[in-house]
Amino acid sequence: MAQNLGIGVLAGLVSALLFGMLLQATPLAILLYLLAPLPVLIVGLGWSHKAGLAAVAAGTLALAIGVTPFLGIGFAAYLAVPAWWIAYLALLGRPNADGTLEWYPVGRLLAWVAGTAALAFVAIAVIAAPNYETFRTQLGAMAKKVVQAQMKGEGPASVSARIAGQPEGQPSGVTPPPAQEPPPVPNEDKAPTVQDEVADALATVAPGLAAQGLTILLVFYLWAAARIVKISGRLMRPWPDLPSTQMPRNVLVMLVGAIAVALVPGYPGVLGVALIGALSAAFSLQGLAAFHDRSRGRQARGALLFGLYLVLILTQGLAFVALTLFGIADTALARRSAPADPPGGPRSL
């Protein structure tokens, strides 16, 4: 037990070091920062959830004492605790009457990953800005910068218009007389521009986009950590049949509830938007799994999967909307054979 806790402490320190690399603000530092949850997941899956808790505590204390308390709390709320919780759920199980173990269903685990990602985003938002108006102002400022950066691409069009305004046959270097400018419109500067409206819309959906990306990252981290632990021979749970992943129907109720909560002002509304984004990512991943499952046994399975991923790449993720709808329909209809949930709920080994 002491050895497991020591390994957990070491993993937490490594995770904290990777998380702290974000302060360097370099491409390599950001890449290393993205790997921060892996040590906690690996030790949680390969040793025990208690070792994972030791990793959370060690990493949090190291950053809080060595850097700032804010960074330590942010590390715990946004990455470390979510990673520990997901690893804990992955190793839940209960014995059957025949002596075998019924492991926590992968579909339920996927739903928990989405919920955890949404809660993690709201937690780090509250930590960064306890006052909602401050959070909204900061988010709006960041959204406006993003929109301004995207609209800088209009420069070539302005140049073309200026060139087109040059009279034909006009010698180069001769400037035509300036056109008379229209009279100023009263209070024109107070009217909201298209740029302001786009920035406001982006700020509204930003929590959903952030939670959506975090959900996909957490799913990838869980898969990668489980593969690493399996190769080492320490994975207690047999490798599941991932294409058969299917979330329960009550997740649809959660999605409807998230849409209703998103209409509430303040941080509850932020949680609703974040949950919508996180669940949409989970449904898109289920849709992808269902496509893999339904293509089994087909002669052209390789070509079908290649075409699917090619469309995903060429459309820059827009096809994920279709996958999300496919995943929602797959959950609502529940026509695939998914492993039954253990009666009475799982319990820890």
Descriptive notes:
The protein is mainly alpha-helical and 349 residues long. Helix content is 68%, strand content 3%. The chain contains 13 helices and 3 strands. It has helices at residues 2-20, 27-33, 37-46, 49-66, 69-90, 106-128, 132-151, 155-164, 194-232, 250-261, 267-294, 301-314, 319-333, and strands spanning 92-95, 101-103, 347-348. Strands 2-1-3 form a 3-stranded antiparallel β-sheet. Strand 1 and strand 2 (101-103) form a beta hairpin. The longest helix is centred in the middle third of the chain and has 39 residues, at 194-232. It is globular and about 70 Å long.
List its traits.
349 residues; mainly alpha; three-stranded antiparallel β-sheet; 68% helix; 3% strand
How is this structure best summarized?
This protein is mainly α and 349 residues long.
Radius of gyration: 25 Å
What is the beta-strand fraction?
under 5%
Q: What is the CA–CA distance across the termini?
A: 15 Å
Total beta strands: 3
- Following the backbone from N to C, one meets helices and strands in this order, namely HHHHHEEHHHHHHHHE
Structural class: mainly alpha
Strand order of the largest sheet: 2-1-3
Largest sheet properties: 3 strands, antiparallel
Q: Catalogue the unreliable spans.
A: 154-179, 338-349
The average pLDDT score comes to 83
**Any idea what the shape is?**
globular
How many separate helices? 13
Q: Roughly how much helix do the residues carry, as a percent range?
A: 55-70%
Summarize the helices and strands and which ones pair or pack.
Elements lengths: L1 H19 L6 H7 L3 H10 L2 H18 L2 H22 L1 E4 L5 E3 L2 H23 L3 H20 L3 H10 L29 H39 L17 H12 L5 H28 L6 H14 L4 H15 L13 E2 L1
Helix pairs in contact: 1-3, 1-4, 1-5, 3-4, 3-5, 3-9, 4-5, 5-6, 6-9, 6-11, 7-9, 9-11, 10-11, 11-13
